[in-house]
Amino acid sequence: ADLSLFKFITTELTRGYFLEHNEAKYTERRERVYTCLRIPKELEKLMTFGFFLCLDAFLYIFTLLPLRVILALLRLLTLPCCGFGGSRLLQPAQVCDVLKGFIMVLCYFMMSYVDYSMMYHLIRGQSVIKLYIIYNMLEVADRLFSSFGQDILDALYWTATEPKEKKRAHIGVIPHFLMAVLYAVLHAILIMVQATTLNVAFNSHNKSLLTIMMSNNFVEIKGSVFKKFEKNNLFQMSNSDIKERFTNCILLLIVCLRNMEQFSWNPDHLWVLFPDVVMVLASEIAVDVVKHAFITKFNDISADVYGEYKASLAFDLVSSRQKNAYTDYSDSVSRRMGFIPLPLALLLIRVVNSSVKIQGSLSFVCLLLFYLGMITLKVLNSIVLLGTSCIFVKEADMEEKLFDPPPSAVSSRVNSRANRVKIIHTPQKEPTTEGGGLPDGIKVATVAESSGSALPKSDSDTFLTTPDEDEDKSMVINAGQDEDGLEPRRPKKDLLEIDRFTICGNRIG
């Protein structure tokens, strides 16, 4: 044992180690690196698909909805000539279309009294810090409005189309309609203030407000990366990011329209705005990529999960085309992503009407051609989305679920009672586990409300978007634990089961 400083230094310089002795650890670390490298590509595929879904729902407001409203009104006008045969004057979908049309018309006239120029100068007179606080408050308010707004619209549609033979337990269609109009106007004004604040940031001399607003996106990384996330929570965040990106694009379009109008539509000014627009969009994309890359890394989530998310969104689109569809496609997008196109469309119509002057017959011809072009874009986008969605659904093996009947509240309650599991403790002095089974003091009893016939499926089974393994549905109780520590393992939640949580879709910032 000849210990010396020279021998210690020699040993430190010449000692070796073998990474293959811990192969599993280093293989896992390498896979994490590969996952982070795959995240930008997989995330942008999901974002692109979701962006065009939002675009399809947004174009529907301008193109097909007016035509559907006109067809519904023509049916009402020609009803005396055709006779009153049938139990309904209008089909439920036509009633919802007429209500949407009336909401759009009333809100447009109410929005015409809001002075955009006065709002711009009022906001521009505030300090930079105050505007930064106002913009953050507007983002929070927008998410709250989106959360409650879809509930208000759903309540109106169901109140207006509810079968008459059922018991009436509501306040009436007119109060619900007034609440929907009030919501749409307030939400549109809120988005207008948000667009005006962004316009002030673009027109500021030192661009300090725009820089602060862009840095706010990177603060979002701090609040999201170090939290515990599951696949369902990540899906909810992805939907929120899709909605946020599309909304930002519309806000930037509004800012460009207002600035071009102020400079008499000089195309040279557009190139002045172009770098700032690219900078805002690039910062948004960079924040989303970094955020999702580190969330998947810290929570050991594979990049393939974004393919499941695409299949889930595709399932919503394809199921809305079925004969037994129970909702319009734009409504399903609203519930899934928290994107309600109605207030945003109102604001865009208001801004375009004040920025573009239509005078003369040639202007009306150009307007008609522009409308036909929008319809063409909507149809082509819908066809491409439907074909792509069918491919995603087929790859995810979810074709059979398209033919499942829509869920009902009665079947959901029956199924929840039928699948209830109880743990019954019987007094025993000490448990025995002979034969590898459960202790004698514990019995697992399943309470079934119906016998013989097959139980109806639950909502999660009907709306399941990704096939779960059988082991996820089983409950395993470890017999080696004490009686006090015995708990049945709950099955994992399905992706589309978060529908009950994604009415807003923006709760995770």
From TrEMBL:
It is a multi-pass membrane protein. The keyword Membrane applies. It comes from the Eukaryota. Residues 450-491 are annotated as: Disordered. Signal peptide: none annotated. The keyword Cell inner membrane does not apply. It is found in: Membrane. GO terms for cellular component: ciliary basal body; endoplasmic reticulum membrane. Keywords: Chondrogenesis, Membrane, Osteogenesis, Transmembrane, Transmembrane helix. One of its GO terms (biological process) is retina layer formation. The chain crosses the membrane at residues 46-63, 102-123, 177-202. Belongs to the TAPT1 family. This is Transmembrane anterior posterior transformation 1b. It comes from Tetraodon nigroviridis (Spotted green pufferfish). The lineage of its organism: Eukaryota, Metazoa, Chordata, Craniata, Vertebrata.
